[in-house]
Amino acid sequence: MADNNIKPLTFERHGKWGWQRFTSYAFAAGKHLASIAAAELPRATLSMPLAFARRENAFVFSAVLSPKPGENFYVDSVGRWLGAYVPACFRGYPFSLSRLPNSEKLVLCVDESSGLVTENGNEPLFDKNGELAPPVKEVLDFLQQVARNRSITDQGVAALSDAGVIREWPLSVTIDGEKIQLEGLYRIDDGKLNNLDDQKFLKLRKAGALPIAYAQLLSMANTRIFQKLAQLHAQVKTQPKVDLDKLLGDDDIFKF
User: Fold this and answer.
1) pLDDT at 56 exceeding the cut of 80
2) Would you kindly state where each structural domain of the chain is located, as residue ranges?
3) Contacts of residue 208, Cβ cutoff 8 Å, sequence gap at least 6
4) Is the peptide bond prior to 94 cis by the omega test (within 30 degrees of 0)?
5) Sheet order of strands, 33-35 included
6) Helices (H) and strands (E) in the chain — how many of each?
7) Which 8-state DSSP code applies to residue 75?
């Protein structure tokens, strides 16, 4: 837990605190990448470009939310999400699962700097018996589902890496006449994937890697959305009440 504001949720520390649900995605405005689990592919593949990003010695399957580091084109200036799908990694906020130092165990944590968890919060975090309140338990269950599926996804991505079918993707887009290039992304090398021998291809299938590979390739056409999102940002600045209903997703917040 590198962020000092993210603390394990405990009755001893937070027993008398409460929380409120977020109404703005401003907390995600600086994220140009979002980790994606395989269960999200049916929606994410149609809504945003997908790529692989390096994290230490491994690749992480990710949604590309902007061609510019430190910006999220899917979040407008008033915190609204401008897309048809919200990645699961954002939907549990201000809660998250993190590993304690020197431990592999995932524990429920909360971002104390979010402004959503305070001593005067609307909803209790714990019940009178010191157990997680039902809404918080619902969030925990969702985050655990995401973590389990992400672990499976990581195995599939590792298999693609081992097969040598991931290569660099210098993403380049043009927005309002400006050419923008985002480094540090990787994509599937479809030529190498198609030329794998039967044994290696079967190994990818058994690892659940093929849906990830094909989803990534299919999603690359979604880079065109950045021009549209940039136009929406400009429109919001001049018309703050612009109707975004057709763009906003209607996901049940705690389901894939």
Assistant:
1) yes
2) 6-231
3) 38, 152, 155, 156
4) yes
5) 33-35, 58-64, 50-55, 185-188, 166-168
6) 8, 13
7) B
